[in-house]
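User: Show me sequence and structure for the first protein, then do the same for the second.

Assistant: Starting with the first protein.
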Amino acid sequence: MNRDSAFRVREILEEHHRWFSESLPMIASENITSLLVREVCASDFSHRYAEGPPGRRFYQGCKYIDEIEFLTIDLAKKLFDAEYANVQPISGTIANLACFDSIAKPGDTMISLNVPHGGHISHSEISAAGVRGLKVKTFPFDVDEMNIDIDRAEKKIREIKPKIVLFGASIFLFPHPIKELYDACRESGATIMYDAAHVLGLIAGKKFQQPFKEGVDVMPASRHKTFPGPQGGVILAKEKFGKRISKAVFPGLVSNHHLHHMAGFAVTLSEMLEYGEAYASQIIRNSKALAQALYDSGFKVLCEHKGFTESHQVVVDISDNGGGTWVAENLEKANIILNKNLLPWDDINNSANPSGIRLGTQELTRLGMKEDDMQDIAKLIKKVVIDKQTPEKVKKEVRELRKEFNKVHYSFDKKADAYSYIRFF
């Protein structure tokens, strides 16, 4: 029985791989790693422990781990033009919490986006910000522009004088107004923080905004959304924050830091140094093409007057088409994988059935899809949501479309099957 259970896990994983190889993965917070990254993540590093900074560990047996961590730090600093990099956080939320811990005290005030306006839950008092004891105020938000209201935000920053001004979001269609609010932040004595989790790959490709050049002090992120690495976190910052951040990460929040994922991160950093600009450019072109195609199909795509998006994300008000839950569940039945999402006018207490959906193009782009393919995807979505065709019927067309796109692009192993399952016995 125990042996059967163990092998059933492998069978389930194989079923999952098969399903995704026949689906359109459009969750905006996911991506697919290259086969080389998966090989590295399956290495002996996954068995090992390395407490402390590289070169000064509390464990023996770390000489090769140290070599890779030093390399990872150097690659991260090079790719993002950063003075300091910490590659030990094991998630984006842990990276955020380490930054909160290093630059603020319990009772200090932070300003960030409200969750229905696109803010990440870790930016709120019910999550990491609250764990640190921060008092969270929210940015004034311009619903039509789907961005921070600059004039009202400037006034609010000057009034409340927050310790942290936090840019970045989970709904992140357009660059945030760092330059426009820089003077207000500095005159109020605030540290400028930028959660780059969603757009790290676009920043790496120099196709979104460049936070450090615009005045950001500290930039935490996860490394598995537009940045196509293994799951985990990273903190990039100006050098003067380095000692405090290092202490907050270890011994503060991280013991062992998932060494196999760190090695995979090093590989992905190398891939993005080579291919990041082309990858980021195609992601944005695909997002714009998908948004336009959905709009032309009769969907209420947000921000038509601004070209819909400048990122990997497309956001659609689906309230007239059954609501976010019905749409997301029925598209999943057709092998189109995306998520329901709160929109600014939604009640946060009604998150189980919001009025929006959020679509991401980063994984489809890494599978080699281009603008014409976004047209095909929009037609498939329309068939389920507007035309009310049965998901099972549309699923057959999705499977047929995916037959041409099962290789990982923008990587050093372009011949590898995207969802191949590595078997060891």
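Switching to the second protein now.
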Amino acid sequence: MQVNLSGKVALVTGAARGIGQAIADAYVANGAQVVYADIDFATAQQVSEYAEGSMALRMDVTSEAEAMSGVERILERYGRLDILVNNAGVNTLKYRVNVDEFPLEEWERIVNVDLTGLFLVSKYAAKPMLRQGAGRIINIASIVGLVPLRLQSAFAAAKGGVVNLTKAMALELAPQGVLVNGIAPGSILTEGTKQLFYGEGGKFNDRVAQMLAHVPLGRPGTAQEVASCALFLAADESSYVNGHILTVDGGWTAGYHRDF
């Protein structure tokens, strides 16, 4: 997919790997100058090394100070910020348990990164966009924020919050020219999902067929397929799309796929 992002500056959080890296790379390939932001600064440096005109940035999204100073550094270097992709997020590998057994510290870790972190980065990234009178914010949610799954109470709560925060932000910022949308991926093939499902030693490898039975396409998605949607939402071609949550799930949430 090709669009024109020439002259645009994009900040992508969680860009050191997986979906975030795929989105950042797609933006670079379409002319944007991209800030690869991640708490894992060393890896962000490595993956951004050959992205001409781009930079790596160490950012812990749960830190208001780092969110604020990160945006300041971007403005110092580029003088503007046009696109924010709030991709940084975590889930739990260890605690796939009912809500009555879910540890508070794990709840707080997930909600702080997936929801509060998104709010903090958006708060500071929106300011220069509003001054410019134009910008795009794209929040990476999850189908779990639309159709909650069992044994993921914190993740479901955080991503459900992302869905409604996206819509609230769209209502608030669009009158000043800043469009806000979200993407809700289904099961995407990444290093994280390999640890859970798709790798030979994945914790729930024996349940892959059962899970994919809910997906009409019968396979996991790729990070590049999510990146193509983020590319569209950043481009001029989506100029009348605002407050939308785009599902990228192979049809998982469309309805019952199996007989029952």
